[in-house]
C-alpha cells in the first residue's frame, strides 16, 4: 500500500469507528424511537450488529494503517484484510436490504432519516470504498467467500428463533417483515443468497484493485 492510500484508508476507517460508536451511544442517551424503546433493543437489528462488526474491522485496519505510516509494518496483514472483508460484506447486506427491500416497503424517508442515513447508507459505502480501493494488500482467495456469510447465517438463526419459536410477546416481532405470508424460509434463503452474491462481487472488486496495484 502506498502512503497516500494508507492515509485515505486511515481517514475512512476512523470515520467508520467514530460515527458508529457515536450513534450506538446515542441509542442509550437519546429519545426512544418507533422500533427501539431502550438502547439495548438496538442490538436486535442487523443494521446495528453489522455496523458494529464493520467498525471493529475498521478499527483493526486503522491500527495497521498507523503502523504502516510510522514504519512498523509494510502491509495490512491477511487476517485483518479478511476481517474487513467480512465486515464490509455484512454492512453492504444492510445497504442492499434497505435499498431493495425495506425502502420500497416502508418508504426511503423512513429508512434513511436521522442516524439511519449513516447506518444504512454512508457507513456501508465507506466500508466498501475503503476496502475496494485503498486496502489493497492481499488477494481474497475464492475458498474464503463462505466466511463472509457467517454473520448473516448466525443472525438468521437467531431471528427465526426469536420471531417464530419464541414469538413476539416474549421474543421479537417480525420487524423486518421476513415472515410476511408465512414465507420466512423464502426470505431467509433470499438473504443468504444475496449475502453470497455480495461477497462474490466485493471480492472481485477488491481483487481487481489489488492486481491493478501490484
How is this structure best described in words?
With 214 residues, the chain is an all-alpha fold. It has helices spanning 3-29, 46-69, 78-106, 108-112, 116-134, 150-166, 184-213. 71% of the residues lie in helices and 0% in strands. Helix 1 runs antiparallel to helix 5. The longest helix has 30 residues, at 184-213. The model has no long low-confidence stretch (mean pLDDT 91).
Describe the structure concisely.
The chain has helices at residues 3-29, 46-69, 78-106, 108-112, 116-134, 150-166, 184-213.
The number of helical segments is 7
Biggest beta sheet attributes: none
Total number of strands: 0
Secondary structural class: mainly alpha
Strands, helices and their partners?
Layout: H1 3-29, H2 46-69, H3 78-106, H4 108-112, H5 116-134, H6 150-166, H7 184-213
Helix pairs in contact: 1-2, 1-5, 2-3, 2-5, 3-5, 3-7, 5-7, 6-7
Using brief descriptors, characterize the structure shown.
214 residues; globular; mainly alpha; single chain
